[in-house]
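R.M. (postdoc): so does anyone remember the format we settled on? I'll just put the structure tokens first.
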């Protein structure tokens, strides 16, 4: 509590719902631990962020929250009551942990803590990984001491700092998964929740592709583990650094964190962005930006068919991979800035 820990500087990380909101926080954790007296994570009970924090021994505190439904508006009827409970829980956590600064990576799981921090006068900082700001971060930005964005032009007040990438991503080891080691390896993945369109496209082109390539397939939660001489599938991958290292080409969605990691490694990438209508259009914007830089190729979901997919893979696999596009000092730089903001505000109290 405040009286006992007068000089302590503590930070709470928030952001959840998908790995794209969570993994940049995880990438920062090690550098934050070097600077802050205590680093905690606040998120949704039973969520992906809770599981990831548990696996990594990161102190995790749950608050109730609920997703905002853009289309099925009637499903938002319980939102005010759940939000009120979540804010009360977050206020209690922030007080008990004597939090000096809240850092948000967005997602609906962040909202109760943002409101609680604002009510308590605790400074808030947010970082947006997508080309355009998500709903939760648009809300958070109103109350933020500082706004960061991975892309220029995302927010008029934002300072551009890339999305932090986990250091472990750069230390993957090539896996010995397949009988024919001279064949190139393709990785199909649809983000932390899977992607039906990518799964279907692979299924329809499997006979052609498996003749020429080894295939790793991260299916999402609906899939089952399966292993043959040239195919290996899994619902999730805890050893994603090793899988990235093994893959010669990756077919994926265009989530900002996924593209950030793959381009940081200099991987050949074919992005199939989630189309506007199924999302706010952020993945299409992310993909267009990276394609303009020459770092990835893009197949729009409406153009994704077996013939097109095979043709693009056959073309891209022959080309030299792009150079890695990431400054590995990013987590250190961002952690320095967050600590400075916390200390400046801490000194005012």
């Amino acid at each position: 509590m405040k009286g006992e820990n007068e000089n302590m500087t503590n930070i709470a990380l928030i952001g959840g719902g998908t790995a794209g909101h969570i993994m940049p926080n995880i990438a920062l954790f090690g550098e934050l631990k070097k600077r802050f007296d205590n680093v905690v994570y606040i998120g949704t009970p039973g969520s992906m962020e809770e599981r990831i924090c548990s696996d990594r021994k990161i102190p995790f505190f749950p608050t109730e929250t609920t997703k905002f439904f853009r289309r099925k508006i009637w499903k938002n009827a319980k939102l005010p009551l759940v939000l009120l409970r979540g804010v009360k829980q977050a206020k209690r956590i922030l007080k008990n942990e004597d939090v000096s600064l809240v850092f948000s990576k967005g997602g609906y799981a962040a909202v109760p803590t943002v409101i609680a921090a604002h009510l308590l006068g605790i400074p808030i900082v947010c970082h947006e990984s997508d080309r355009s700001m998500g709903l939760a971060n648009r809300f958070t930005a109103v109350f933020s001491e500082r706004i960061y964005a991975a892309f220029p032009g995302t927010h008029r007040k934002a300072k551009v700092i890339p999305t932090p990438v986990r250091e472990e991503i750069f230390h993957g080891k090539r896996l010995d998964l397949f009988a024919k080691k001279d064949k190139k390896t393709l990785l199909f993945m649809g983000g932390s929740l899977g992607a039906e369109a990518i799964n279907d496209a692979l299924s329809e082109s499997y006979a052609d592709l498996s003749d020429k390539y080894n295939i790793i397939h991260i299916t999402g939660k609906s899939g089952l583990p399966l292993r043959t001489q040239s195919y290996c599938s899994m619902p999730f991958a805890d050893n994603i650094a090793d899988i990235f290292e093994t893959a010669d080409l990756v077919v994926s969605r265009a989530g900002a964190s996924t593209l950030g990691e793959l381009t940081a490694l200099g991987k050949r990438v074919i992005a199939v962005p989630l189309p506007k209508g199924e999302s706010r259009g952020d993945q299409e914007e992310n993909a267009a930006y990276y394609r303009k830089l020459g770092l990835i190729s893009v197949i729009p979901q409406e153009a994704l068919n077996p013939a097109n997919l095979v043709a693009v893979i056959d073309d891209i696999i022959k080309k030299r991979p792009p150079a890695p596009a990431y400054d590995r000092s990013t987590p250190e730089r961002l952690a320095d800035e967050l600590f400075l903001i916390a200390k400046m505000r801490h000194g005012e109290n």
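R.M.: ...and that's the designed sequence above, right after the tokens. Also worth knowing: The chain has two domains: 10-164+328-348, 169-316. Residues 169-316 form a domain with the Rossmann fold fold (CATH 3.40.50.2000).
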